[in-house]
């Protein structure tokens, strides 16, 4: 192939391989990519650089020009200079194997690229911003090639003849490659939003029943399962309207979100029913947490709706999952305690006092009569 054909071929090849690279991405945020996928990206950048070296543009004997620095720079912009260095080693070794008058200038150019990446990365860390947010960086990364070209016997002549085309080609191709990966991450971000919306209750901002089913594999013996139900919620809706009812549910969701921390999870099961899973708490701490939530909720609703004639309260059932106990069995036990709290006058937390019931518990669906009775107690 001629020089022009080689340039077009390298651009097309680099664009195609970058698209393949984008398919490796699994998360919308670069920092969230799993380690194994980062290694795949490292391998892809290395492979692209080596493939591009197979179709160089030979400007003079021993002086080969290609776009191998672009995937190395792209990897450096995503994960830092250390990853870029790892990707550069195979292509540097291969270039040394090829030899020729351009070998040393090629090493200098590559070293300059890594140096610029390192300085930019250090500056981004110090200024607490992403290196990818430095918009001018792609236009600076390939300037060290000037030093490499000037090392050649006809360096000054080649500089004006070669560098402008090479510089623009590398910079524009790098920007194009970044756009390909960015568009893929935007697509992943949109998919994540849709997936998150399907697991989230829009009224309270908590996870919904589907979110709970998605998370059940994470729960194990020692976790506490807390069921919550707003007392006389149907009466609130009937007497004061659905807007007040929605405000009440939204308030409980807000109180739960503010109190959860990173370890615990809360879900709205539907209607006025909520489930919370608490981790790393003793029985006493879990009970105290439930009581604090109930008190904070009642106080918050009273502040928001002072026209309500009586406090809005919550009943709760609390159990500790036994070792080897299924989550749904524990949830059934918590529901039984919630029913007990309702039958004892509401506005309280009933907690399992023994663990014997956990050993003998079975997941039993309530009968129709029991469902009617529970509805009356709400």
UniProtKB/TrEMBL annotation:
Domain of life: Bacteria
An example Gene Ontology CC term for this record: plasma membrane
Annotated membrane topology: Multi-pass membrane protein
Pfam families, alphabetized: 5TM-5TMR_LYT, GGDEF
Example GO molecular function: phosphorelay sensor kinase activity
Keyword Membrane: yes
Subcellular location: Cell membrane
Cited PROSITE patterns: GGDEF
Gene Ontology BP term (one): cell wall organization
Record domain GGDEF: where: 221-354
Keyword Isomerase: no
Keywords tagged on the record: Cell membrane, Membrane, Transmembrane, Transmembrane helix
Annotated transmembrane regions: 6-25, 37-57, 103-124, 136-152, 158-181
Protein known as: GGDEF domain-containing protein
Source organism of this protein record: Deinococcus cellulosilyticus (strain DSM 18568 / NBRC 106333 / KACC 11606 / 5516J-15)
